[in-house]
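To: structure desk
From: M.T.
Subject: fold request, one chain
Message: Could you run this one when you get a chance? Sequence is below, nothing fancy, just the single chain.
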Amino acid sequence: MRRPGLILLSLILIAVMILSVLQSDLLPAFFNLFTGEVDGEIFADDLDEEAPDGGGSADNGEVPPGNLKSLARQLTEGVSDDYEKLGAIYDWVTHNITYDLEKSKNIGEYGSGAAYLFKERKGVCHDYAELTRALLKAVGIKATYERGEVHPAPGKTENHAWNRALIGDTWYGLDTTWGSGFVDIEKEIFVPRPSRLYLTTPEELARLHSGPEYKEACEAKLRRSEALAAKPRSLPKYEGRLLKLINKSREEEGLNPLKEEARLLDRVRKSAATAAEKECRGEEYTLDKLGEAIKDSALSLRLSSFGIYTLTLWDYPVPTAKEIHRQILKQKDSFLDDDSVDGLTVGVVRRGDLIAVVMVGLTYY
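Reply: Done. C-alpha cells follow.
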C-alpha cells in the first residue's frame, strides 16, 4: 500500500521541478544552482592582477571581483578587433567614472584601486589607471600602469597615473582620467567631458602630458572640429531671457526698456549661425551683410539708426543666459546703455561648445 503513495509523491516532486523551470520568474533561482549567482552577484574567478610592465605597480592588493570581468566581456561582446575593444573600454571608463575632488585632497582616508573605483564610480588617477588596466587584461589585452610627473597647466606640476596597451606589435598610450573631463578651478567642480584625445600613441600622450600649451591647442582644435560637425541650433529661451536681463540692467541705470523687434529675428539668427561657423573654422567674420539688410528694411521698419553687437563664447557646459549677460556687460562696447535705443533683436545660436550671440539695437522715428 505504501508503494503507490511513494510513486505519487515522486510524480508530484517531478511536476513541481518541471513547473519551476518553465516559470520565467523562477528561472534565475533554478540556474543559480549551476552558475553560483545569488541576488545578481556572480561568484566567478578573480581577475589576474599581476604587476604591470614598465612604471611599476600601484596595486594595493585589492583584486577586482568577477563582475568586473563580466563587464569587460560585455563591453567587447561581438568585437573581434583588439583596438576596437581598447576603444570600447576607454569610452566606458571616460563616460562612467567621475573624478573625486574630495578624495584628491585627502587620499589616505579613502579606498583605492580597480575594485574600489568599480564600486564607487569616482576616484583619482590611480584608480582610473588600475580600473582601465584590469578591464583591458580581462579581455586579453596586455596593459601597463604608468606613473610620473605631468604638467596640466603652465607652471603646474603634479603626479599622475595612466596606461599603455599593446595591440599586436603596437603600443598605445591612454589616459582615462584626462579623457573623462576636467576640473573647473574657479567653481571647484569636476566637469564630465569625455574625449578620445587621450587615446593615442605613447609619444603623443607624453607630449600632451608635458606641454600644457600644446595640450590646450589640441583641445581647442578638437573642440572646433566637433563644433563644426554639429548642426547650428537657435536658442529661443536664451534670446527671451537675455532681453529680460538687458532690460533689468537698463532699469537699474534709469534707462527705458527695449521693445522686442521680432521682424529681424530670422535674419539675425542666420547671421549668428554664420558667425558661429566662421569662428569654428578660425576665420575672421563681419556682420556687414546684416547691416546692409537692415538698411534695406529701414524704411519699412521706420528706423532712424541701428547698432549691431556680436559675441562668440566657447564654454562647456553651455553657459547660462546670466553668464552670457555678464560677458556682454564686461565688454562695455555695446549700445545697451544708450537711452536713444528703443528696440532690440537678439539671436542666439549654439554649435557644439560655441555660443554665438548677435544683437541689433534699433532707434525708431
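Reply (cont.): The first helix runs from residue 2 to 22. Let me know if you need anything else for the meeting.
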